[in-house]
Amino acid sequence: MLVPNNVYLRDCIEGIGELDDGSVNLVVTSPPYNLGNIAKKHKIVYNSYHDDREFVEYIDWLTRVFSVMYPKLAEDARVCINIGDQKNGEIPTHVYLATALESIGFKTLTTIIWNKSQVSNRTSWGSWLSPSCPSFPTPFEYILVFFKNSRKLIHTGETDLTKEEFIEYSLALWSFAPEMRMKSFGHPAMFPEEMPRRLIKMLSYKGDLVMDPFAGISTTLKVAKELGRKYIGFEIDEKYYQASKERLA
């Protein structure tokens, strides 16, 4: 039996399937981006996951994950997915993912642009000084926010939002730095704690259950714990799982 306030060494599809229906209030996650050889070039290589599926297979896999998740969510649950497009925007991954979730039954609440003010391939110009075939490196990523059935929260609870936070977070353009400590944590693709902190405070009450099906080293779960939420997550890699256990302790 799965209980909250834990991270589990499980495939997320298998683990999510064992949750009670209607039990999860908020999902904050970032799935692997399916960058393949591009990821290897930039040393984004996971220990136990091959991030190089065929694109159709990748979207089908994510569709299965969120299809299994759908009945486990409360009627007013929100789902937040951090994702970036591929090939400098040539492959609009966020569009395909949004379409997949809408086909399951999710409704779009908003799309937040995360301005990272950082781009690793700024000299990837394409056709240099020519309109022939220019390239457009993207110093931003998307945070797609969906809800299950009720846009407004049905259940009541205590918020920990300040006035200043509400004003800042309600603008759908967020500017904060990416995670700079990935090497010390031993994980190649972490988002910073600021992301789940904003999403958890803006979209849930204290005591709600927050889930991350792609926990990594449990940044989302750590922040949820600090903010007085219950949490649960799944991770397939034993190294990241052990790092999560230590971090959450």
Commentary on this structure:
The protein is of the alpha/beta class. The protein has a single domain (6-248), classed as Vaccinia Virus protein VP39 (Rossmann fold, 3-Layer(aba) Sandwich). It is built from 9 helices and 8 strands. It has helices at residues 12-17, 37-41, 55-69, 93-104, 163-169, 182-185, 194-203, 219-226, 238-248, and strands at residues 6-9, 24-29, 73-83, 107-115, 140-147, 173-175, 209-212, 230-235. The protein has an 8-stranded mixed beta sheet, sandwiched between helices. Helix 3 packs parallel to helix 4. The longest helix has 15 residues, at 55-69. It is globular, with a radius of gyration of 18 Å. Mean pLDDT is 89; it is low at 37-43.
Q: Tell me the name of the CATH homologous superfamily.
A: Vaccinia Virus protein VP39
Query: Which structural class do the helices and strands define?
Result: alpha/beta
| Helix segment tally | 9
H/E series, N to C?
EHEHHEHEEHEHHEHEH
Q: Averaging pLDDT over every residue, what do you get?
A: 89
CATH architectural category: 3-Layer(aba) Sandwich
User: Any idea what the radius of gyration is?
Assistant: 18 Å
* Spatial sequence of strands, sheet with the most strands: 1-8-7-2-3-5-4-6
Largest sheet: 8 strands, mixed
Task: Tell me the β content.
Answer: 15-25%
User: What would you call the shape?
Assistant: globular
Domains (count): 1
CATH topology: Rossmann fold
Instruction: State the share of residues found in helices, binned by percent.
Output: 25-40%
Question: How far from one another are the termini?
Answer: 21 Å
CATH class membership: Alpha Beta
Q: Report low-confidence residues grouped into runs of 5 or more.
A: 37-43
